[in-house]
């Protein structure tokens, strides 16, 4: 009998200030930018979970996150000047330290600035990403992922997808979609892989999704609460071996989200050189993923016509995730046995949100087993 | 004394699900695409009267209309694969027949798919257009227009106009606007035609609009309920004789509509060849109608500057119809004797809507007199 | 102690029909277009304070302002034809005189048109701008600015800024922002000028803002109620002497406004020739101000990278004014002694609005002292 869909879905997808899912997401360190997104001495506006912030990198190189606007007359602080590790407002020159305290208010009387401060947020740069703690109270210890610090080639990337972040999370807990949405892609080397049998169980880190292929191969994907994923990527190239991809999905607002991704290729020495060589080639002349996804959803292009696009997997996910609606209607679903991952994900999320709302302790997740808990499976296995 | 404007206008212009005008419009077969809009083996999303649908054409060539999304997780079905005359969902491969029954759910247990179905809609392809019945209950017999099946050159076309469909219907019941809005056009051969005296009467098909020109010529235009028009187009070219244009105006939503048009040129043999020859010329380099209409409404261009545009009549109608507002304010009108067609159109529409709302029979319209009931009049008559 | 911010700000920023600030602004003649914006024999739509109008210039050359749409069926009058000093509707040819009376309704019985009229607005063309009185009752006498009629080169210009007009008015009453927002500009010749001490007092015309620079120089700027500014512009070029700039900020709606500017250069004879010469050079290839302002606010460009843009001052003001929000949040400000101009401006505005709401007389402002009440100060003084 098909499972009854969640009737609490709206509680999960809203992460703005004052929402329960927003409080839960804010209780974790979240990546908000890539290292290369912000140069020393520069500032940028950020939008995370329907809230605005200022990101800047001091002249010393340390990134900082502050409130979005000056306490004085509400001007966007990111348009100002970085001076040392402080930030001066564009409008009247009020100057703030990394801790948010105002240290200069040039046209005011002496001592005035001491009465002024804005909110600042703990910030940490790690493995090519800038993380921030946007929650209440003391920040929890920053969680390191020691396996990802290993020797090899580490690539960071990000993309923006114009739908609610939970469409993406559920997509990750759904191994069956690979056989259809990605049937024409490097995931499957152009052939329809067998439809797997799916099982899911709760782990110390979140969920383990197990997909058993008809031929006997088993793929296990780890989902990390609240919004992470770890997958093994199929070997490619002459020195190909399995690489590891870890990603965080972070709401920009309820209608779109960013994904911040770290791809670790276990290649060193000559193999690393060989991997890097082709990357120096000419930049892509392909149309952007979001534009092509929209053309597919409008019916102007069929997905099969894009099979040679280097980002075909992203386009396929864009089509599937936005094709459900920016915020999906989950009241009219019809779930089956293959949706056990999605059902478990919602159950865990709702359990944690209810605990948080009731003032009870939430589960302390940790990446206990590291890279080894995730298992790839060759396409033809 | 000027007529009091309708105070029931809002009832007429809203055609979304659950509205009374929407129920009325859905009780008729409506065109939703041109034949060439959908290739065999392809699918497209449709939006008609604020509702979404999937249009696809089976590999056999037969067009089908289904619900917009998969019953499983709500993904847009039009992004999937046509297989024979069935449609497979892009996300997890659920497959639906033309009757909307699910015939495969690959990752589920056997028999599961039999518990699943989505709505399908009767569909009919006729004279280069695809018609669908979107209403409740059994579809009425499909109405043929036998005169339009005659030998000759039949051209189908369509356009989208970004205002409520009723702005367009009222424009059709208003012969006076030709003398002004179209004063510079092929309709009038560049000269101000005389302002006609207008009368209107109800017919078996809808309304007959009679415009008597000062010089004695009489033009009669037939309006077909609920939203059709038949006009005679002035002779053009060496073999010119009167051609017949029939059009359906179909809401996309309350803020825009499509027009699907059939133009029948009564030309055969050598005359048909001569008509077709110039059409092989280079494609138009002219800016699109909607873009130029917007420029005229902004005041950047005066309509007279566009008098050589091949679609000048469409631009003029775009300017007049959108210039009244996307949904016009009819409470502040000031109608006169020349508005009898509009007044009668609203009266008939409201009578039918009231009957439908009260559960009483509505009038059974039929195209009794065919092409002959419509009369053109040469410009200088 | 910092001043408590205004809690009545919403009353000030809303100028649509029926608002108290709208009534106040409409009690003054307001510029709505530049002379060159409308040719003889042409019409344009206008939007002023969230209301629509038709602007046209009769064949005699006199500009007129009428209601936006025809009384008949609500079509945009600006798409019609100017005939003499009258305007004929595009849709059915109803013709209106400059006083708004309908003088022809071609398809109606004789005498019908005498029962029809639309609203017309007193209009006056002066110093290269078209002014209109949009308020209730009799228009007040048109206020001339005789000093601006002097010999010299008079340039008129306008710009649209996509924020509430009051962001701009407050910016004008704030001499401190010049030292920061405009630190890299012709205002300051690229150097940080000293931060001034500010004082403000009410005058016959509005407010006098006095900024005393550290080196002893004093700059006095005059603000004219309800929304004018007069500033002295620094000398530039070989014959450079102080020029005078007077501007009116006029809401388009609550989210954007126009500025209409008159720049009077006191140059005649050979000096005027020399001033005009370089203006004949090639047109600017620079990106538009609004586009660059948006790029700075997004963090894609830092303002310092644009220091050679000829409109750098406008870009800086765009960044500062829109960076506070389209309609700024004034409840969370933190004002200091340097904000006395802003505080006084709000106090006067609220006093006048309260008087108007209570049916009491408002203050009769007049430009008593002309150009001499405004004082420039060389950068290095």
Give average pLDDT of chain A, whole number. 92
Greatest interface (CB-CB under 8 A), with counts per chain: A-B, 33 and 27 residues
Envelope shape of chain A:
globular
Q: How many strand segments of chain A?
A: 18
Distance between the termini of chain A: 31 Å
**Biggest sheet of chain A: strands side by side, in what order?**
12-18-17-16-15-14-13
CA gyration radius of chain A, whole angstroms: 22 Å
Structural class assignment of chain A: alpha+beta
- Per DSSP, the total helix count of chain A is 8
Helix content of chain A: 10-25%
Largest sheet of chain A: 7 strands, antiparallel
Question: How would you describe the oligomerization state of the chains in this entry?
Answer: homotrimer
State the order of secondary-structure elements of chain A, H for helix, E for strand: HHEEEEEEEEEEEEHHEEEEEEHHHH
Low-confidence stretches of chain A: none
Beta-strand residue percentage of chain A: 25-35%
Structure description:
The structure is a homotrimer of 381-residue chains. With 381 residues, the first copy, chain A, is of the alpha+beta class. In chain A, 19% of the residues lie in helices and 26% in strands. Chain A contains eight helices and 18 strands. The first copy, chain A, has helices at residues 9-13, 20-26, 165-172, 177-180, 269-276, 289-298, 312-322, 340-357; strands spanning 30-34, 43-48, 51-57, 63-66, 81-83, 86-88, 95-96, 102-104, 120-121, 123-126, 129-132, 153-161, 197-202, 206-212, 218-224, 228-233, 243-253, 256-265. In chain A, the strands form four sheets. A seven-stranded antiparallel beta sheet of chain A has the order 12-18-17-16-15-14-13. A four-stranded antiparallel beta sheet of chain A has the order 2-3-4-9, with no helix packed on it. Chain A has a four-stranded antiparallel beta sheet with strand order 5-6-7-8, with no helix packed on it. In chain A, α2 (20-26) crosses α8 (340-357) and α6 crosses α7 (312-322). The longest helix of chain A has 18 residues, at 340-357. Chain A starts with 8 loop residues before the first helix and ends in a 24-residue tail after the last helix. The mean pLDDT of chain A is 92. Chains in contact: A-B, A-C, B-C. At the A-B interface, α4 and α6 of A face β2 of B.
